[in-house]
Amino acid sequence: MKFIGITCSVENKKIFLNRDYIESIAKLGFFPLIISPDITEKVIESIDEISGLIISGGGDINPEFYGERNTACKKLVPDERVLAEMKLIEIFIQKEKPVLGICYGMQLMNVFFQGTLYQNIETEIDHTKGSHEIKVVDDFLIKKDVYVVNSSHHQAVKSLGRGLEIFCMAGDGVVEGFYLKGHPFFVGVQWHPERDFSEASLSIWQSFAKKIK
Fold first, then answer.
1. 176 closest CA partner among 132, 120, 207
2. Are 82 and 192 in contact (CB under 8 A)?
3. pTM higher than 0.90, yes or no?
4. Which of 45, 66, 74, 178 would you call most buried, defined as having the most Cβ atoms within 10 angstroms of its Cβ?
């Protein structure tokens, strides 16, 4: 059985994780391991036993992490979660193990590589609910085409982090997916592939599973 780490939201003495993440990993035939900030160091010590990492969704990253003051963040993610996940990103990159960042997870990846975020996007597309089209412009993971994905975020990539390459975008120019050039599988997507069975979501999970060793 191969273990896949999944990070979770934290609030005081409680942790939170949508069960869809666990079900998605289990359906792929892997064993989900929920990682809270408290066990980050233990996970790093046992990195050879963990085959991949999912950085789950969450609230807003404190803009101080990308050199800005807070002007529009609605619910800040505790710094302990951000710092713990950055440590995980670093070790998983070093070990060249698959990492998938989802929504907040993608935004954190971008900040890790010195990218910045729009604190609140206002375009002709409502990204906070429902669904919309994306266009795949780089067939790194998914064949070039137009797909429909779910959407539930109010922030997005502004300046792209170093070494990251965009592979899909929304019609309003919002970045919906990127990958780290030269890494076997370091991918961020702005939608939630664990929530549906759309073609784009299934392609993400299938590609992730193929890289698990």
1. 132
2. no
3. yes
4. 178
> What pLDDT, on the 0 to 100 scale, is given for residue 115?
98
Strand order in the sheet with 3-7: 31-35, 3-7, 50-55, 99-102, 186-189, 175-180, 164-170, 131-136, 146-150
- The Cα–Cα gap between 203 and 129 comes to 22
Q: Is the pLDDT of residue 12 over 90?
A: no
Say what the pLDDT of residue 154 is.
97
CA distance 146 to 130: 17
Alpha-helical regions (H) of 28-177: 40-45, 79-94, 104-112
Nearest to 36 by CA among 3, 8, 4, 61: 8
The residue behind tokens 């619910």 is: 75
Set out the domains of the chain in order of their start, with CATH numbers. 3-210 (3.40.50.880)
152 pairs with which residues across the strands?
A: none
- φ and ψ at residue 50, rounded to 5 degrees: -115, 125
